[in-house]
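Session log. Operator J.P. requested a structure for one protein chain; no other inputs attached. Running the standard single-chain path with token output.
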Amino acid sequence: MEADSFVPYNPTTYSDDEIKTRAEEFHQWIDSRRSVRKFSDEPIPIEVINNIIKAASTAPSGAHKQPWTFCVVSDPEMKKKIREAAEKEEYENYHRRMNDEWLGDLKPLGTNHIKPYLEHAPYLIVVMKKAFEIEEGEKRQTYYTNESVGLASGFLLAAIHHAGLVALTHTPSPMIFLKRILNRPKEEQPFLLIPVGKPAENTMVPDLKRKPLEDVTAYY
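Structure written below.
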């Protein structure tokens, strides 16, 4: 990259004490995020969704290719089609594809193949990954595609939480039906299906505990 294509970077700086406080405050805030399976159908302004997606698109990506497309679905008929197709795949998962260990691990979550939130949530965001790009009719490769789209999805979830909304990372495998329903181009593949909205009244979530720091960290 040519030197004249760089611009100065002037981040906000903090004292050591402020850094400690901000890090702990962020942990406390993000720790309150939960996956929700019961959504209100209360409308959400599209401007909110657009800003959430813009925030997600600030994620780092291999060679800055930004190999993602966020498909925003609010049309009731299309949401119904997605739910029907997802439940068909999920029925196969719960009744044939998943082994006993997998089903046992899911039991505390109280999940099954019925997915009403795919219609109740005001928006579905289908995250598509681009295995390659088409530029001026030519096929161009992307790099670290899964890692890049995974990072953008993490930013997306944080932005949803920051806006005061809730979400669920839904992965009805296989997800190829999403590409067909949304009529996406050949270079895109479904990565995540994320309902977004406000929680339904009196929503309950499983009483889960996150792994402690010592179980997820190694120091050298």
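Operator note: The helical segments are 16-30, 46-56, 76-97, 100-106, 117-120, 145-162, 176-182, 213-216.
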